[in-house]
## 1
Amino acid sequence: MKNILLIICDQLSAQALSAYGNTDSRTPHLDALMARGTRFATAFSNCPLCMPSRASFWTGRYPHQTGVLSNGREFPVTPISSDVPTLGSIFFAAGYQTVHFGKCHDAGTLRGFDCAEIARVPVEATDPTLPVNYDTEQDRDATNKIITWLARDESRPFFAVADLNNPHDICNWIGRFEHDPIPPISDPLPALPTNLHRAEGEFERLPLPVQYLCCAHNRQAQIAEWDEHKIRHYLRAYLHYVSRADAEIGRILAALNARADAAETLIVFMADHGDSMGGRWMATKHCTFYEETVRVPLVFAGPGIAGSGRVAEGLVSLLDLFPTLCDYAGLPIPPGLGGASLLPQLRGEVVAPREYVAAEWHTEWGFTIEPGRMIRTPHHKYTHYLESNGEELYDLHSDPGELRNLATDPAHITVLETHRQILREHAARTGDGYFNLTWKAAPRWRSHTPGYRHHRGPTAPMEVSSR
Ligand code: ZN
């Protein structure tokens, strides 16, 4: 039995890492890990929101199957039923030490793991333009605690999780600098994203939840009046919090390497979802399914894994984590999972490409409810939102920045119909009652000129919260 060390970041886009093409990012420890393992080029989160994504990968089921559809508040989350197998419960029953350090936000899906209590510990900010908040402070405590745990001498195999918050501290950064000017800095700023601006008239062709993302999403509203200079500062700060996560990961991997059984340990690295990274003038994540928010890093390194920086092509999703780890450990894969084992690819075998992967959205806090679905095929992305039957279709080869919505273009009706059919069949096959759900958005959250730069005043959550 091999050990498993699973390292998770919160809100880390694949494209924020140098291995995935980012030339401004500095992550030496993750680079080294990827250089000796296999990374998946196109791995997707099944929901761009913490709790639904986490409940999904800890159980290997789609959000509509776990019932964990939001982060709570006005749309409360019901913890999953005790008869649903979780990764922790499967590995605990198989005799592993199952331990978890860091962010939970799991709606009961960490069942089977012994979860350490995490506190905030002081972390010095190195730069007044890059303040630290609870995300960074909890990461330090989680890292310290897993390092202490790894130093113990214990013969039983382990499944240990380091569940880091960063680069999620970017959310606090946006709030901190919403109005305030940023003090001058000496180092260069990252380049603006190439897909920063939508062309004139494009907003009106988007599904309403996307047009009015700002009205449902506090962080999106907070950047409405920013200029390009501030977007570059946002990217700089985001990459800073990425590098903070990388530094903690370096400490964890050093602690692992100090163990006699380090070479007998599978290391997995991933993120629950991504961040908009300024693409299309968007911040953090909400109801949209653009590559920045749903494409995540997924890396495996260790015994039995084809190494030397191998890149596995083809569509995979975080639903594949559960069956892959069971398969790797020689444990039976429970029935009813949404994904499939990636072990053949990890051994270096060539497998038939998947037709598609799917992601879902329901609501963040329940103040607006905008059910949506994404079907990502090798060349295209199709999204559907119930509100006004909104659709998007992007050709990811000719338009990787997802700026030209082809769903309203008669020339692409055949491709559109194909993707509509995939979604219908996917919903039927997975028991997804999506098409019978209802959306909710008060008229005042659909009232300004389309486009989030026109947003002024409170968002739906802020208004309701301040009543
Ligand atoms: Zn708005």
Note: The first strand starts at residue 3 and ends at 9.
## 2
Amino acid sequence: MDTITRKASKGHRLVLLPLPYQGHISPMLQLANILHSKDFSITILHTSFNSPNPNNYPHFMFLPIPDTGNEMHSLSDLKNILQLLNYINTELVDPIRACLERLMKEDERVVCLITDVHWFGTQSVADGLKLPRIVHRTSNISSFRSFVAPVLLRDKEIRSARGVNLLNKLNKITWQKSKGKKVVPITLKTMDKSEASASVSRLETFEVKDLPKFLPSDPEGKYKILEVMVKGTQEARAIIWNTFKELEEHELEALREDFPNPHFLIGPFHKFFPALSSSLRTQDQTSLSWLDKHPPKSVLYVSFGSLVRFEESQFLEIAWGLANSKQSFLWVVRPGSVEGSEWLEPLPDGFLERIVEGRGYIVKWAPQQDVLAHPATGAFWTHSGWNSTLESICEGVPMICSSSFGDQLLNARYVSDVWRIGVKLENGFERGEIENVIKKVMADEKGLEFKNNIINIKRKVNLCVKKGGSSYSSLEDLVNYILSF
Ligand code: UDX
């Protein structure tokens, strides 16, 4: 590949199609900004559900897919994710084809379609229009490997390190097992301890319990979706990652075996372009003035991303764990994130006044990247979404991980066991464990060790996005690659 970057002439147009969720829209819009800075013209193709705000991006063209948004809205709860993916990859495929055809007629310099991997149904559209399709995977490589493991390992019948037939093990998770006369879905509750802690072949770092949890109610549906997603990714011309080589070189090599496509590791995206407003919610800027009043590294920032929801009992364990830790905290509680409540109603009478007043601050949504960069922030209690994890790494803030679903489980395992930059809460939400872990990370020797490790990675991040660094060079390669189409 050339080492000198060819410049896209204004007009080489890229069409980017994000999955309409916060954790997917933000990195796709950051990627769009990065490519725009390389002189590509940008069109954002988007659903009306969770539409990004075009006013924040006057330099892009926005093209709404003509859908009503109602169907997607009714499927927006996480428990309907399979139906939603099915819907967008079948019902929206024709409207997307029509949009692209029209755009390509009006502008003959459309050179490439870049979609989230979850838009696997668009591969046939791109093929039909002879438009190269590249995919962007918003998670990291490690978690992607675990994500696709059921499909790839099933194909190959690989045996696990402990001689247990992994295929069977995965089937147990993926499908169902018999209990007496009943067939019960496999969940961590129905699995015995040794099954849950078994190691997984070729995914050395993971234990079975870390593999992404899906809906036991529809294992067949999950498998089919994974299968087409794997196929759609393998058929794409390349894969773009919001990660960097120094962090995942080993995982990339392992992935190449099944995904021989060109891979471009050009993250962390937000190091090239600090967050423009891709936030779908209003960020409460008083978070920052509140942090201003606190000494360096004294505040625990608590946020569980844009999708995770809690039962009331879990929410109360979090609240009491925070209160009993006696540490200062800034806590994001998204309205509607606690089952059956609008916002903070489940908190006991007087909790806010007596316990939280002065030491804690609760907001509905924070300017997260600025919060993590604030000198007062000492640690981050997170759900381990990839954007949050990456943002924390970039600011050198150690983590407490409470993963919930999908890639979060793997991210948390890597944070605690591989990169050693934080700790994973292993027992869900239990106030005693929470209190101890917060003290450990904020005030203990262990916290210092995490801090040193994460600062080391932060240094590598700063280098990789500079001229000659791995992400910088990979971006040059990506531009050249697109211009070679
Ligand atoms: C989802 C999945 O949960 C995650 O596992 C996957 O990697 C991406 O899709 P989400 O739950 O939103 O994402 O988490 P995350 O990936 O961490 O993204 C959240 C984004 O919202 C971050 O960029 C964060 O900076 C932003 N955010 C979060 C705010 O701006 N304010 C907040 O108060 C909380």
Note: DSSP finds 20 helices and 17 strands in the chain.
## 3
Amino acid sequence: MKKINSFAEYKDWYQKSVEHPQDFWADIAETFTWKKKWDSVLDWDFKGPNVKWFDGAELNITENCIDRHLAEKGDQTAIIWEANDPDTEHKKVTYKELSVQVNKTANALKSLGVKKGDRVCIYMPMSLELSYTVLACARIGAIHSVVFAGFSAKSLADRINDATCELLVTADGFTRGSKYIDLKAIADEALKSCTCTKNVLVLKHSGKSVNWQEGRDVWYGDIVDKQSDVCPAETMRAEDELFILYTSGSTGKPKGVVHTTAGYMVYAEYSFRNVFQYNQGDMYWCTADIGWITGHSYIIYGPLLAGTTTIMFEGTPTFPDAGRFWQIVEKYKVNIFYTAPTAIRALQAKGLEWVEKYDLSSLRVLGSVGEPINEEAWQWYHTNIGKGKCALVDTWWQTETGGIMISPLAGLTKEKPTFATYPLPGIQPMLVDADGNEIKGNGVEGNLCVKFPWPSMIRTTWGDHERCKQVYFSTYENKYFTGDGCKRDEDGMYRITGRVDDVINVSGHRIGTAEVEDAINSNDAVVESAVVGYPHDIKGQGIYAYIIADRKIDNLEAFAAEIRSSVTSEIGALAKPDKIQVVQGLPKTRSGKIMRRILRKVAEGVTDQLGDTSTLLDPTVVDNIVQTKDLVN
Ligand code: WT7
């Protein structure tokens, strides 16, 4: 695949992508392995929405991730696995070995009755077998639904049931940082409320003993090892579903974002190569978890499509100490490093001694993703990790966009801290006002939309196309609405300012306030609750919960612990409120709507500019909230 080599070339590509989008994408798609070429590059309307890329084409994405590299790169390392514990030996697999393992795993799935179109839920630690399983699904045309291994039994069950998954692939357990997670036990608990799942494939990862359900549970190694290493790649149509990935929104129930085969593939490699300016032989490391879209697109699919060596890390930035990331960079001479602002801020807080111990001179490109990167973190990353010499790409995108949308191209685009800068060729962002009118010109601010389709865009929300239409294509007519606020500066550069809906971005993870409220309300003592985000030094945003209880709370600490445990078991520890305040009432309008604006201000600690409270049903509740603000756990 050709790559953009200068900013002048970027401008040419961009212009072509807008003027002749079909030719533009056909040229890029040309470089892949197709079983059959497309009849038409793009058919679309955003009313449906109904978007088809490369319609009529047939392919299998794993032939593009693996088979086509075997002749020239068979012996090159495809994936390096680095364990949580630095004393555990790392593992490396070449493209040839990856092929063997993916084919065997694919045959194992088939032997369990999994067929094209079936859904497979994957709830696994960051292990090589997780990658094999994802690719094995794609090999046989099963739709993978990866659920982040930090989610609770209830969240897992909801996701398994929503997609009626035939098979669950999990592991005995794993240690992340210093915490052991008993994955199989959580999976067992979830499956009590899932009737669709016939088998559970269990990877022996930690070696700890687990409960076993004869007839249902199968050891991964037992079944995979005895399979043939040849599994013909299923012929997939361009718009056949590749995967489902759940994400939170404004309502209580997470949505299953659906990505399809050809468009996702084309955009994953295209964006990977151009944003990171990948060169053959580069050592690449993305620190995300495969449970999120970043891991799907930029640990597995994008890098493997480009024939990269991609590192998979099981651990955390601060275990056993705050030097862990930099030790890994030194160990593998990483050239391209992609992480999240929350990790940067956490490491910044630990001091430079952890950075200075290691040789980071191999680094050429640094990336950031998941939330707005504040100026201080940007400068620290640039100066202390990049030594002022590395390109720094602040990449804006979403689960729904499938790949990076707005970002500098490493080393080509002039950078500006806190700005994601310019859209990739093929991406047409626009800012709109509250009524959906386009805000033209520069030096403006509005809600971020996209006005033209791109290959890796969301196609539907699993089982509920109407919801996809309502959430993304109805707020503003004939546009995709991102849910983000955005500024465009005098140079036409974009700066994403954060969510404009009821979604909190905690450490780069999207959490819907309604989901957290539902979880809190599941506690017996809770009458009602309201959750808002507030600025948090490390996490970007923290979760602040206002709770009305049905009894007098004498021991706030014990009560808060109970609430946090409710949220942990309903959603997962990632959604635990950072702050809990018991209140007498919530500020509501006469129509019963909670005025979150006021709650956000109080959570931020700004209590003298609460704005107009006269439209509230009972303005005195605000006084009560402000007065009891010091009673927060
Ligand atoms: C939301 C998407 C994209 C992969 C990880 C998160 C926020 C993401 C940036 C950025 C400012 C960003 C947005 C977006 N976001 N990247 N570079 N600058 N904000 O995926 O869970 O689907 O969340 O993350 O608010 O809408 P996600």
Note: Residues 36 and 58 are 5 Å apart (CA to CA).
## 4
Amino acid sequence: MTDARLADLADRLPHLRLLTEPADLEHYGRDWTRRWTPKPLAVALPGEIAEVQAIVRWANEHGVAVVPSGGRTGLSGGAVAANGELVLSLERMNRVLDFDAVDRTLTVQSGMTLHAVHEAAKERGLIYPVDFAARGSCSIGGNIATNAGGIRVIRYGNTREWIAGLTVVAGNGELLQLNRGLIKNSSGYDLRHLMIGSEGTLGIVVEATLRLTDPPPPSQVMLLALPSMDALMEVFALFRARLPLQAFEFLTDVALKHVLAHGAQRAIDGDHPYYVVTEFDADEAAQDAAFAAFEHGMEQGWISDGVIAQSEAQAAALWRLREGITESLAPHRPYKNDISLRISALPAFLHEIQTLLGDAYPHFDVVWFGHIGDGNLHINVLRPADVSDADFIAQCEHVTKLLAETLQRHGGSISAEHGIGLVKRAYLGSTRSAGEIALMRGVRQVFDPKGLLNPGKLFD
Ligand code: MLT
Ligand code: ZN
């Protein structure tokens, strides 16, 4: 170990797994953005809380920045280590610690994947309902760091709603037990909620107590083809009023083109500009209501076509049309926007933004999809082969500035569920006031006086 700081860490923690091979530095130093060149000092893979605390204390003594790391499926650069930081990967801390059938809580280490959390809940006859396509790779700690949302927010809300307690190593190495699983706790500031969505800047989440709930009743999945964005909003209002929705997701024909090219199966013939994948509780009354809503939508001209899954395999195939989009776009290194608005503000915003993006990106493929039922749109711009990375990002940044201004006027947010990280840092001021950002800086200073936890992320 040639670096004296690392030699000291290895001396203090002789059993700590520490990686310094170039391939490991590259693997652990980046996330799904692939925009920055990874350059961490080393990667530490602690196996227990005491090691995490010792690493943070060591980092304070040597002034080494620490990047907390989960599954690195993030899309905002929140887990990127490109400046000689120590990556602190929680991936070895991935066990279930406790299940309480009375409280209906599952306590887990933060390196568990979301999929493993789902399985652990299922084995106990319950569900952890937050869900999205990266479930197999993302970690519950990363979900907490970004207050992840996903495809069932319309029914269950974001990650925040399901966190009953957190164990956190603060910036000085101290261990904090936040909320301890209580349902009611009116005893001052709820630091648990401050941690959720803090993108690893206030502390390192090492354990989480998750609320579980009953499995939903059997459901049905439907794919709809629609003629316009206005029709999409009408159909959403119609379905939400009449059906117990679990999900209501949309994609455009451009998104469909990419996901079909990536191996998904076409389910509706013809060309339609918009599609919806929706899932709802399927008791007899809901099924009748679904058919009635569908017919009404057809009569109004809001729905052009539709299919309803007849089996679990068909339901999975319909979901693949929506869930496969991110993977199908990844080879194009998309520039990602993840915006949110109040649903009531969407129609006016969409009218304005469609013209703006049409003018701004006449030569780029622009792919729209997302959680329209939550007011959350993903607008992905694809880099043409003949445009350099630098030119492409510069053009996209210019448009993001206009997008951020438009969002600000409509009261929206520049990040709905991916986080601010490095990618959206320049636009934080369009979503948060100067006063709020000043307070956030103050909070960060209190939790991490030396500024060593995920520096540069969220804001400088
Ligand atoms: C999704 O909704 O599929 C995720 O947020 C990932 C993405 O935006 O690519
Ligand atoms: Zn999403």
Note: The chain has a mean pLDDT of 96.
